[in-house]
Write a structure and sequence with these properties.
- By secondary structure, the protein is α/β, with parallel strands linked by helices.
- It is built from 16 helices and 18 strands.
- The strands form four sheets. Strands 9-8-7-3-2-1-11-10 form an eight-stranded parallel β-sheet. A five-stranded antiparallel β-sheet has the order 12-13-14-18-16.
- A hairpin with a 5-residue loop joins strand 5 and strand 6.
- The longest helix has 16 residues.
- The chain is globular, with a radius of gyration of 23 Å.
- The chain starts with a helix and ends with a strand.
Length: 557
């Protein structure tokens, strides 16, 4: 029996991914096993017992492939190997096997929209010149203007500046331009090219054959571009700002043909292999297109992540998400933070504002750490009680806040440079995890380490280490452990129904079958609970039958 099947035999026959709790491992910052200041596969292996005891079903690992690290590994130079700073293919094989022994599945990141500029394909394209088969794998075009010195169109990079870079041809003369929707070190692939599609189908099989359980698909909505490369005439940015899939490079309908082929490959393998899409779409209905029965399995729910701490807004997102995904038979996934957005323990501590990635969320004012932590505790119980699956970003179970005062000279996110030092980027949510001890590196690196962590940890994190929180019933870590244990044991949780109760303005209250209820008080005033219900878990202290503001409770009816 394959070890993927062995997990299924232990956990039941229903596809595991429909209600899984998946823990995001940002590999650079999770645990450093060799002492070089950067996380690695050895570090992940050392923390598998922690993840097992936390109670997660799988881990999603950010890119672990060979890479110059121009964008923290999302500039991939070789999709069939492991970055030497992280380990080897043998290390990856051992991680997969050991994770399965702990009942944990492994989902690597896949980055199909672009490669590194150091990938052999792109280096060949530069050497071959205009009109060559090598350049056809990417998107090269002549420039505009009489001397070709202007970009082919007005597309902008998500990291700031134009989405085009001009190359010098083999003879040294200024030549064509290539497209990069992200950093210049990340040239976009041409997904209209048969060889590109065949290459990634081969990559899928390479890793499925090694036992991985699925893939998280980076920029899943961006692979297909309008072949005419027209100028963008609407506000630029993420795909949701352009109506009804008409954007020339975001969320185009042709992308689903690719994923239908990928689904057929995944279905050939045992153990319910799965995909999760990072897809930004104009609406929940557009997002549902990615998870139809013949397409990808799940997609991140960014509407929930972006929702303000407001009962009406959260209920609207929950309803539209579940209804649109139910229409195609797919489960919802719920997520509060990830490696690309400010941590929610800090976001929730600011006045509620409409916010999207790429905007300065700090403009709302100073954060209240106590308020943000209290709301983060309540949000955890809300998220983990909703129908479907959930994602936990490493460190949120420790209540880690955003680190907003990293020294400018240490910032490494390309957004910092590409924005002309106007946007600090995403480093603040990527600071290495504190595991133990009274001072940095807090057990992130071994005692013999000769290098500091790649980003510095705040001294104040000594009270937020996993060691300090373990056994403390009031800690964030023990709240997550309890919630995940109850979620696994309670038949009402995971995939299933949800029925709203009328609990008054500013209060979210719903029941799930059988005999489970969740109540979240966002009203600003204490809320009276039914006295006959048994409390399973609360995110804060209850006062008799009163639920304080910014607190959630799970009830057994």
């Amino acid at each position: 029996m394959h070890d993927n099947d062995l997990i299924d035999s232990h956990q039941g026959s229903a596809p595991w991914w429909r209600d899984a709790v998946i823990y995001q491992v940002y590999i650079r910052s999770f645990a450093d096993g060799n002492g070089d200041g950067m996380g690695d596969i050895a570090g992940i292996r050392s923390k598998l017992p922690y993840l097992r005891d936390l109670g997660v079903d799988a881990i999603w690992i950010n890119p672990w492939y060979p890479s110059p690290q121009a964008d923290a590994g999302y500039d991939v130079a070789d999709f069939r190997d492991i970055e030497p700073r992280f380990g080897t293919l043998d290390d990856a094989d051992q991680l997969i096997a050991e994770a399965h022994e702990h009942g944990i599945r492994v989902i690597p990141d896949l980055v199909p929209n672009h490669t590194s500029d150091q990938h052999v394909w792109f280096q060949a394209a530069l050497a071959a010149g205009p009109g060559s088969p090598e350049r056809a794998r990417y998107i090269f075009r002549p420039g505009r203007g009489p001397d070709g010195s202007e970009p082919p169109n007005n597309w902008n990079s998500c990291f700031g500046g134009p989405a085009w870079t001009r190359v010098s041809e083999p003879d040294g003369r200024p030549g064509e331009w290539y497209l990069h929707l992200f950093a210049p070190e990340q040239p976009d692939l041409n997904w209209a090219h048969r060889e590109v599609r065949e290459e990634f189908e081969s990559v899928l099989r390479f890793w499925f054959d090694r036992g991985i359980d699925g893939f998280r698909i980076d920029v899943a909505h961006g692979l297909i571009k309008d072949t005419d490369l027209p100028d963008v005439v609407a506000p630029q940015g993420s795909g949701y700002v352009y109506p009804e899939g008409e954007h020339p490079h975001w969320d185009r309908d042709e992308v689903h043909e690719i994923y239908r082929g990928w689904r057929r490959i995944a279905d050939e393998y045992p153990g319910h292999r799965k995909f999760v899409a990072e897809a930004w779409a104009d609406s929940p209905q557009r997002l549902a297109n990615y998870v139809r029965a013949d397409g990808l399995h799940t997609a991140f729910n960014f509407d929930f992540l972006q929702a303000t701490w407001n009962a009406e807004r959260l209920r609207e997102v929950i309803d539209t998400t579940t209804s649109s995904l139910n229409s195609v038979g797919a489960p919802a996934t719920w997520v509060l933070s990830n490696h690309d957005v400010p941590r929610h323990a800090t976001r929730y501590g600011r006045p509620p504002v409409d916010w999207v990635p790429g905007q300065n969320y700090r403009a709302a004012g100073e954060a209240d750490p106590e308020l943000g932590t209290r709301r983060a505790r309540a949000a955890a119980l809300l998220m983990l009680s909703l129908p479907g699956g959930a994602y936990i970003y490493q460190g949120e179970e420790l209540g880690l806040p955003e680190v907003e005062d990293l020294p400018e000279e240490l910032l490494q996110d390309p957004v910092w440079e590409r924005s002309g030092h106007t946007e600090r980027g995403r480093d603040g949510c990527r600071v290495p995890i504190p595991w133990s001890g009274e001072k940095p590196p807090f057990g992130f690196s071994p005692a013999h380490a000769t290098a500091d962590p790649w980003l510095p940890q705040p001294e104040s994190w000594k009270d937020r280490t996993a060691e300090a929180q373990t056994g403390d019933p009031g800690s964030m870590l023990e709240l997550y452990r309890s919630a995940l244990r109850i979620r696994r044991e309670n038949p009402a949780l995971g995939e299933g129904d949800l029925a709203w109760n009328d609990a008054g303005e500013g209060v979210l209250s719903f029941t799930r079958t059988p005999r489970f209820a969740c109540v979240v008080n966002l009203s600003g005033q204490p809320h009276r609970l039914p006295v006959h219900d048994h409390v399973l878990l609360a995110s804060g202290e209850l006062e008799d039958d009163l639920l304080p503001p910014d607190t959630a409770v799970w009830l057994s009816l």
